[in-house]
Amino acid sequence: MADEGASDHLTNKQEEIVQKCALSCTEMDKSDDRGYRKVVFLIGAGASTSAGIPDFRSKGGLYDRYGPDLFHRLTLEHFPQKIYDFYREFAKQDYAPTSVHKALARLNVVKRLRGVVTQNIDGLEEQAGVDTDLVHCVHGSLSRFRCSRSFCDGFLTAKEYKALIPSHETPPKCFMCGQDSLLRPDIVLFGESLNSATLGDALRALVSCDLFVCVGTSLRVQPIASLPIEHVSRDAHRIWINRDAPPDVYQENGFFDLCIQDECDNAIENLFPDLVQ
Ligand code: CNA
């Protein structure tokens, strides 16, 4: 592992990675193509902070504002209003995709994107234009609401839900099952299980990539935090982008070939100059 900054400090392998990223900005040429062909990103809240959406752990982030229990299953059970108040705040803004999301959309267009495993719930990957079937929202999404009873299929899109907000002082009830149950954001709260089909799609992407880019996540939330070390293909090149260094276990293991400690947008714009315009 090494920190990027001055290109003259890069190892040969790191030089090769930087060059291959630059060569991955154009449409895949089947005959003589030296770029990456199966790029997978794992992204976290840091990929969206420049859009104005706070992350969890940075100063002024959601933990500072709401406390670490906001996204816990027991909060929904006992203090649901807190989660709906958070959503109401979130939904008031129009957030625009960042350079990270734009690069993903371009990698998709040039047919080099194998998948995006996103812990984010803001929907900015699809808003930027990434194909839905390539985006694996392992923690769910705020773009959808569902009945809190597992046997009920009741759901609303965020657009439909937004139309209901003004008329709801209290959290809305499901209109389908008639059981007085809550319509809740379709996100995975702490203490809940991940959707196994979505996780399966994410793992299939990770095992088959030739470039793995981990952007703007503290890699502290399990089980996602262990996915790279357990599932990313051994042959893949691996890049870390974050203001902070990777967690100890990733440093000890020398997992990342290139660690770029920088703002996410800046790092992506430097690595993939022609993707972000
Ligand atoms: P986190 O634990 O808050 O980590 C964010 C990481 O990104 C930290 O290491 C920061 O230092 C770093 N970071 C923040 N901004 C930047 C930046 N501009 N440039 C470089 N680095 C930056 O969040 P994780 O994503 O690791 O944790 C997973 C949680 C956060 C998931 O369950 C998400 O649902 C949840 N979350 C999502 C959003 C969103 O959807 N935008 C917002 C807040 C929290």
Overview of the structural elements:
With 277 residues, this protein is α/β, with parallel strands linked by helices. It has 2 domains: 1-52 and 98-139 and 195-277, Rossmann fold; 54-92 and 140-187, 2-Layer Sandwich (SIR2/SIRT2 'Small Domain'). 32% of the residues lie in helices and 16% in strands. It contains 11 helices and 9 strands. It has helices spanning 12-22, 62-66, 73-78, 80-92, 99-109, 124-128, 158-164, 196-207, 227-231, 248-252, 264-271; strands at 39-43, 113-118, 135-137, 140-147, 155-157, 183-187, 211-215, 237-242, 258-261. It has a 6-stranded parallel β-sheet with strand order 3-2-1-7-8-9, sandwiched between helices. The longest helix has 13 residues, at 80-92. The two termini are 30 Å apart. Bound molecules: carba-nicotinamide-adenine-dinucleotide. Carba-nicotinamide-adenine-dinucleotide binds at residues 44-46, 48-50, 53, 55-58, 61-62, 119-122, 139, 216-218, 220-221, 242-244, 263-264.
Tell me the name of the CATH class of the largest domain: Alpha Beta
Largest sheet: 6 strands, parallel
β-sheet strand percentage: 15-25%
Rg is 20 Å
CATH architecture call of the largest domain: 3-Layer(aba) Sandwich
Bound heterogens, unique: carba-nicotinamide-adenine-dinucleotide
Number of helices: 11
Described by the principal axes of the CA atoms, the overall outline is: elongated
Helices and strands: which structural class? Answer: alpha/beta
Order of strands in the sheet with most strands: 3-2-1-7-8-9
Instruction: Give the termini distance in whole angstroms.
Output: 30 Å
CATH structural fold name of the largest domain: Rossmann fold
Q: Give the low-confidence spans.
A: none
What order do the SSEs take from the amino end to the carboxyl end, as H and E?
A: HEHHHHEHEEEHEHEHEHEH
Provide the helix percentage.
Answer: 25-40%
Number of domains: 2
| Annotated CATH homologous superfamily of the largest domain | TPP-binding domain
Query: Tally of extended strands?
Result: 9
- Arithmetic mean of pLDDT: 91
